[in-house]
Amino acid sequence: MNVYFVRHGESEGNVKSTHQGENVRLSEGGIKQSQFLAKRLKSKDIKVIYASPSLRTKQTAEVISKELRLSVEYWEFLKERRRPSEIEGLSYDHPKASKIFEITKENQSKADWKYSDDESFNDLLNRAKEVEKRLLEHDDGQNILCVSHIGILIMVILHMILQDKLSPEVFWQFYYHSRLENTGISHLAYTKKNGWKLLAWNDTSHL
């Protein structure tokens, strides 16, 4: 089985550097990125498309589905990591958002810690496990596309590779020191003999 994980195209929130909710649209640049991505994916013989139901991922997946002539199934499990609702719509450097980020960073090694109505490390990990479980229900030979968001994609991929060795410290270290660009493609292959293998990370050669 081959799974291609892609981050959504550039959103209006990405352009404005604001903390995004679920109803943020793609920017004009994000639509163009999605079109380039769709043409790139035509060579991958993809049979199934799964996507987060958030608007920016939905728009990205719709561009791809039109090019590949496939329908899209939307998974709640692929939604972005839920952040405190207090910061939604605030700029990254807004004093309130910065203070909440500071407090969160001080506690991020605690697997069950939450600031308010956000997700803990374990909450996000449990979603990642569900994504893997559903993917493994497919036949070994299928090529699958998942359109999602940076936080949950990093968690899913790290869980697949590290399994029980994944900790909050490892997740956050990777999260802060890696890049996953808009429409970046990460490719994992699975066999029953060898498990998951990461074959590509953040491939943006289509842009």
UniProtKB/TrEMBL annotation:
It holds the Pfam family His_Phos_1. InterPro entries: His_Pase_superF_clade-1 (IPR013078), His_PPase_superfam (IPR029033), PGM_Phosphatase (IPR050275). CDD domains: HP_PGM_like. GO terms for cellular component: cytoplasm. It comes from the Bacteria. One of its GO terms (molecular function) is phosphatase activity. Transmembrane segments: none annotated. Substrate binds at residues 7-14, 56. PANTHER family: BROAD-SPECIFICITY PHOSPHATASE YOR283W-RELATED, HISTIDINE PHOSPHATASE FAMILY PROTEIN-RELATED. This is Histidine phosphatase family protein.
